[in-house]
Design a protein that fits this description.
It contains eight helices and five strands; from the N terminus they run E-H-E-H-H-H-E-H-E-H-H-E-H. Helix 4 packs parallel to helix 5. Strands 2-3-1-4-5 form a five-stranded parallel sheet. It has a single domain, classed as Rossmann fold (3-Layer(aba) Sandwich), CATH 3.40.50.300. The structure holds adenosine monophosphate. The site of adenosine monophosphate (AMP) has 17 residues, from helix 2 and helix 3. Adenosine monophosphate binds next to helix 2 and helix 3.
C-alpha cells in the first residue's frame, strides 16, 4: 500500500516519472492532465468545460477537478495505492484529498517533488511544443502555466513540507538519469512500507 503524490512544475517530466514510479511500486499512475485531455479528445461535457482552461494555461476550477478525482480515486484499482500526477495543485484540493484519506483511516506516504530550474523548464517546454503540438505549450501559455504554478502550487508544497512528507528529487539532466533517482526513492519507500 503506497499512496504518493508526484509534484513539479510544468516541464519537469512529471508524467514520465510518475509512470516509472508507479510501475516500480505496482500501483496505477493517475494523471489529472491526462484525464482532462482524454475528455477533450472525446468531446465529453467535462472536456468541453475543461478545454478553455487547458488552452489558456489556467487551472480547471477546483469544483470540477475535485469531482473528477473523487470518482477516479473511488475505482477499485486505486484502493491499494496510487501515484497522483498533477493533483493536488491548490490548497482546496489538498483539503479534498485529506478528506478522502480521512474516510479510509490512512494518509499519504510521501510527496515526491521534481526540482528543475526555471531556465531549463522554459527550454524543455518550448522544445516539447515543437514535438507534440500540445495547444498549451506556446510561449505565452508556458509562461502563464509557470506563473500559475508559482502562485497556486508552491503553497501546496509548503503545506506538505511542514507535514514532513516532501522528498525532493533533482529533475535536471536526461530522462534516464532522473528515472534512476526516482527508482531509488521508490525502492526506499518499498523498504519502509514492508
Ligand atoms: P498537466 O498535464 O499536469 O500539465 O495538466 C495540463 C492542464 O490540465 C493544466 O494546465 C490544467 O489546465 C489542467 N489540470 C491538470 N491537473 C489539474 C488540477 N489538479 N487542477 C486544476 N487543473 C488541472
Amino acid at each position: 500500500m503506497t499512496f504518493l503524490v508526484l509534484m513539479g512544475p510544468p516541464g519537469a517530466g512529471k508524467s514520465t516519472q510518475a509512470k516509472v514510479l508507479a510501475e516500480r511500486l505496482g500501483v496505477p499512475a493517475i494523471s489529472t492532465g491526462d484525464i482532462f485531455r482524454a475528455h477533450v479528445a472525446e468531446g465529453t461535457e467535462l472536456g468541453r468545460e475543461a478545454q478553455r482552461y487547458l488552452d489558456a494555461g489556467e487551472y480547471v476550477p477546483d469544483e470540477v477537478t475535485n469531482a473528477m478525482v473523487r470518482e477516479r480515486l473511488g475505482a477499485d484499482d486505486a484502493q491499494s495505492g496510487f501515484v497522483l500526477d498533477g493533483y493536488p495543485r491548490t490548497l482546496e484540493q489538498v483539503a479534498v484529498l485529506d478528506g478522502l484519506f480521512a474516510e479510509v483511516d490512512g494518509g499519504l506516504d510521501a510527496v515526491v517533488v521534481l526540482e528543475v530550474d526555471l531556465d531549463e523548464l522554459v527550454q524543455r517546454l518550448l522544445h516539447r511544443a515543437e514535438l507534440e503540438h500540445r495547444t498549451d505549450d506556446t510561449e505565452d501559455v508556458v509562461r502563464r502555466r509557470l506563473q500559475v504554478y508559482a502562485e497556486q502550487t508552491d503553497p501546496v508544497i509548503e503545506v506538505y513540507r511542514e507535514r514532513g512528507l516532501v522528498i525532493p528529487v533533482d529533475g535536471t539532466g536526461g530522462v534516464s538519469e532522473v528515472s534512476r533517482r526516482i527508482l531509488q526513492v521508490a525502492d526506499a519507500l518499498l523498504r519502509r512500507n514492508r
